[in-house]
Every structure is written in structure tokens, then in C-alpha cells.
Amino acid sequence: MYTDVIKGLVFDMDGLLFDSERVVQQSWNYAGNLLGFGNLGEHIYHTIGMNRGGREIYFREHVDADFPMERFNEVTRARYYEILEQTGIPMKPGAKELLRAAKEKGLRIALATSSGRDHAEAMLARYDLAQFFDGCVCGDMVTRSKPDPEIYEKACRLIDVPSQYAVALEDAPSGVRSAAAAGMRVIVVPDLVEPSEEILALAWKRCDSLTDVIGMI
User: Are 169 and 206 in contact (CB under 8 A)?
Assistant: First the structure.
């Protein structure tokens, strides 16, 4: 059971710190059409929070048994970074302010993202956020993707904060389930997917933006 004391925060990344899920969706549409499968962006609603392995299983079950996942990932990644260079990907309102406030309060801070380590580190460096994090657990560093609790359990161990003293910040249902199963309080800040009653019941709080979280820590 968790306590009133908060000693650490664990952040998701895509859709939580960055308004990036819509860019992923555009990239999936682009890659899907290039590879002859048509628009695939709608599948993001079913795969948010999955790591690469989880997405590969999903695409081969729901799109094509021989889906060329490696090539799809290459095209998607290239298109994503092309958009990033052309227009940028905005940080979510309050992201840096919340991270700064948490750091000033002496809280331990971790990242728990289903994205790969190279991508996560590149995004944190690009937006000058790496300075705030005491550790990162990425999708290619776990064997089971969200909603399994592995990634949040590892993140809590990494920053040496027991789960009952840590708060997870998530936008996606699979992430909320993952953090709750790890024994953490969860603040859900919705992005593409509005939380169901089930997800709201698992969450500690629901906020409209990260700015609203600052007064809670």
C-alpha cells in the first residue's frame, strides 16, 4: 500500500512529455502506404505503450502474418525524424516546469518509456531534459511491454525508490495498468485515448496537463 509521502516520479515519454503520438501516427500512415498496406495510423490506438516486440506481434496478428516489421520501422523512423527536423515536436505544456519543480524538491526522477533507448536519449538531449533524470528504462531494456509492470518495477529500483513512495505519470491505458500493477500511484494525463472508467479507477488522479501536477508533488 502506498503512503502520502512522495519520493520519486516516473514519467512516460511519448504523449506525456512530448506531443509525439500524432507524429508517430502520420509516420505509420506514410510507411504503410509506401509498403502497400495503406494507412496504418489508426492502429496506434491499439498499440500505445507497447515496445517494439509487442508491436511486431500485433501487426502480424492484425495486419499481415508476414508483415515486414523491420522495414516498416526503418521507414517510420526516417519519416518521424524528417518531421522532427522540419517542424519540431512540441513538449507538452508544463513538462519542463514539472521536472524542474520535482528536481528542486529533491525527488528522484526516472523515465519509463516503450520507445527504444537510442530514441529516448536523443529526444531528452534534443529538448534539454536529460539533466532532470536520474535513470531511464526503455522498451528495449525489458522483456515484457506495458501493461506488464516490469518497466515500472525496474524504474523504481533504478532510482532506489520503493513503488509505494513513487508516482507514475502516464497518458495511455496500458501505462496506467502497468504502473498500478507495480504498486504505484498513477496520475493520468490523457492524450490520444480518453481513459475509461476502469482506467480512472486504477489512477490516483486525472489531470488535464502536466502543469496541474506541479501543485501535487
Answer: no
Q: What is the count of structural domains for the chain?
A: 2
Residues 22-46 have pLDDT tens digits of 999 999 999 999 999 999 999 999 9
Same domain as 25, residue 14:
no
Return mean pLDDT, the chain.
95
pLDDT at 1: 53
Task: Tell me which residue range forms the domain holding 25.
Answer: 21-87
Instruction: Specify whether 66 is located in the same domain as 104.
Output: no
Round to whole Å and give the CA distance between 67 and 60. 6
Give, in order, the Cα–Cα distances in Å from 62 to each of 1, 24, 65, 192.
38, 18, 8, 20
What is the total residue count of the chain?
217
One-letter amino acid for residue 189 of the chain: V
The pLDDT tens digits for 141-170 are: 999 989 999 999 999 999 999 999 999 999
Check if the beta carbon of residue 120 is closer than 8 Å to that of residue 113.
yes
- What's this model's pTM, rounded to 2 decimal places? 0.92
Give the relative orientation of helices 52-62 and 69-87 as an angle to the nearest 10 degrees: 120
- The enclosing domain of 100 has a CATH number of 3.40.50.1000
**Cis amide bond preceding 147, omega within 30:** yes
